[in-house]
Amino acid sequence: MDVLIRIAESLREALFPTRCLVCGSFFHPVDHKGYPSCGKDFQGGGVFSRDRTFIFNMLMESFLCPACSKGFSPVESPLCLKCGAMFRSREGDDHLCGPCLSSTKRYRKARAVGIYDKTLRPLIHCFKYKEKIQLANPLEKLLFALFINFYYKEGNDGEEGMDLVVPVPLHVRRFRKRGFNQAFFLIRNWVGMAQALDMNLPFFEIGRDILVRNKWTEPQVGLDRDKRRLNMKDAFSLSDSERVKGKRILLVDDVYTTGATVDECAKILMGGGAKYVDVLTLARTM
Ligand SMILES: [Zn+2]
Ligand SMILES: [Zn+2]
Fold first, then answer.
1. What three-state secondary structure class fits 248?
2. Burial of 45 (0-12, 13-18, 19+ CB in 10 A)
3. Who's near 114: CB < 8 A, 6+ residues apart?
4. From the first residue on, what is the mean pLDDT of each consecutive set of 10 residues in the chain (286 residues)?
5. Rg (CA), the chain
6. Separation of 100 CA from ligand 2 center, angstroms?
7. Closest-CA residue to 62 (of 111, 25, 17, 29)
8. 101: CA distance to ligand 2 center in Å?
9. What's the CA-to-centroid distance between 268 and ligand 2, angstroms?
């Protein structure tokens, strides 16, 4: 019987290999024996102590071939305490980068899962522009893992969580065209996921409609830092400032480029009385 099952299994795999979303090649997903309870999502929370590359590979194994998985580069220390930029030198402690020393940035700190390069760039592109909506689930979990790691893990320098998680909004015209806000798709199940963890996490809520994008802006690609900042000026407003007053807010987006977008959002949230605003993105340009 065992033999028959094995033959059937290998036939199934031979007939239906998986297509890598990044390079398009066919591959057979490996059964990673080293992934404890991962298939069962994040039950028990043990996965949060694993490193970022491990979590990435675990979540992406059915979507990326091994070669493309290897192209993932996590954002690691030493990095800038404020904007999260990685330093060229791979030695030493985290500290402020040159631009942040004299910065007027309104957010407290920005962090990202990985570098926006050969794997994360095409992956996020597939998700946003090619309607590979099946990526929403693993990408959401990836960001959630980092969120728990930063704000709820024991011994994380006194951080004690967030009150409100807010997605960077799209303009209604872009929303209609794309059909979804990718930033919201990265956080929409977090409350349920947190409850399912059984870790007694303090309450937080998702503030889907708190920020509103009033101004139509052309894509920022190709614009320099100053133009981006100008482009974003007065682009956002608050739907209800009562909901942000005194709150610790996590602002979420897919990619951090110059930080102009998230900083403009942070300005509005701080203007509404937020206690502080941190930023979390899937990827960051370096
Ligand atoms: Zn590939
Ligand atoms: Zn910096």
1. strand
2. middle
3. 52, 56, 72, 73, 74, 75, 120, 282, 283, 284
4. 73 73 87 48 64 91 92 94 93 93 93 95 92 91 92 65 94 89 96 86 92 84 80 89 95 95 96 97 96
5. 20
6. 4
7. 29
8. 7
9. 21
